[in-house]
Every structure is written in structure tokens, then in C-alpha cells.
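Bench log. Compound arrived from synthesis this morning; before running ITC I wanted a structural hypothesis for how uridine-5'-diphosphate sits in the protein. Inputs:
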Amino acid sequence: MAVKKDFKRADGRKAEDARPMTAKVGVIPNADGSAMFAFGDTVAIAAVYGPRKLHPQHMQNPTKAVLRCNYDLLSFSVGDRKRPGPNRRAQEISKAIEWALSPVVDLSLFPNTVIDVQIYILQADAGTRTAGINAASMALAQAGIPMTDLVCSIAVGKNDTNLIVDLSKGEEDFEEGEGATDFAVAKPANSSSFSLMQMDGKISPELVPEATKLASKVCEEIYEIQKKTLKDSLLPSEQEKGAKK
Ligand code: UDP
């Protein structure tokens, strides 16, 4: 089954369109690296601290650093206030983010240390783990952590039989026909392999290649945004230019 070209979504997007994407680095000056990434109303920030000595000592790895990710939805990020603090969902997503990022980070350079990646969702309208991964990848790069690539992440999925990209919360809750499927993926930008595939719902095996092709195409757009944002952050600001005159 091919992506329906005439299929219009509730917010007017075409099946293959992500929501408007925005990104910024250096949003948390006290962190070693930080970034914000948004898909429409879903806004994630990430802050990187380290590498720094890992305590307690028995958790240290003498051959490499530990990459420790912590994801959480802030209470005010969702319509119904979320109970503050970690829960099973946050623990699972933290681990998934760690796995998605690990292949590109050279941990062997910093034995016995920890690199902490804190990811907080300021506003949630689905796609929070994918926005979080995009932000975390930029924050790691800004912190100067040696990386072989940037990781890009997007959700693809289905509403009934229609393949769609970057589901909103309304689309994730779709119940008609076959209902909704949410398939979050992440991939190092310059690799053909994926570092994360997580599915909520069902998709037939013959649709998977088309879904991953759609995801890869949006990952290319995300990569361009990440690169441009990181490069622009190195240029002098208007204020700095003025001070030089
Ligand atoms: N959500 C919520 N309360 C929660 C958890 C999730 O309102 O405690 C909403 C939020 O909008 C989130 C969406 O449900 O983005 C989908 O959550 P899911 O677990 O599928 O992860 P995501 O798509 O955000 O990565």
C-alpha cells in the first residue's frame, strides 16, 4: 500500500509532512551543552553535563564512560497535569533514548566517568521521545562530546490504513477502522541503520519498508536543521558584532 497523496490530515498536513520544526542550542548556559527541539506544539529541551567522575565508584566502567539519559514530562506539559517525578514510562523512554544515542558517542575516551543527558518536555503533543532525541543529539555535539554522527528521530505511523509522519496526540488517539499505530525511529544521519525502533500499535510487515523510507526522508530534513543550528551558534551574535565595531 502506498502513501495516499490526496490524504489530508486534521491540521492540513500531507501524509509525509512533519509538523514545523524549530531548534536552538545553548538554551541552558550552565550546562556543558544544551538544545531545544520542537515538532509543532511538542517542545523538548536537553542538557548535557560531563564527562565527570562517576559516583558511586562501583558504577564506573574502567574501559569507557557511562551515558546516562534521563527523560521526563514536566507536570505542566500536558493538558491534565502530570504527577511530578519519574514513572515507568519515563524510565523506559530514558533507556530507549540512551540506546538511540549510544552508537554515535565515543565513550571509550572517558573511562570511569559519566555523561549525563537530561531531557525535559516543556510541552507535549505526542512525539516527545523523538523531539527529545533530536535535542539531546545537538546538546551532546554542543558539549564537545566526540561523536561520529548526529542522531535524527521521527515517528511514523498509521491512522486506519493511511501511513502518516509525526503523529500529533489527536492522531495517536485515532480509533476508527484499524485505529492508530505509532512507530518511533531514530537513526544516525549518515547511516542506513536505525538505532531505535519502537512501535505502539500494529503495522503489516510489507508496510515497514515504506514507513522507514518516509522516516529516513524526514530524518534528512532534521539533520539539516541540526547542522545549521549548531553552525549558526558558532557565529558571532549581532550583539558581539556590534561590540567589535
Ligand atoms: N501523555 C500525557 N500524559 C502522560 C504521558 C503522555 O498526556 O503521562 C501524552 C503526551 O502528549 C505524549 C503523548 O501522550 O506526547 C504520547 O505519549 P507516548 O507515550 O506515546 O510517547 P511520545 O509519543 O510522546 O514519545
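What the model suggests: The chain has a mean pLDDT of 94. The helical segments are 88-101, 128-142, 169-172, 208-234, 238-244.
ITC booked for Thursday regardless.
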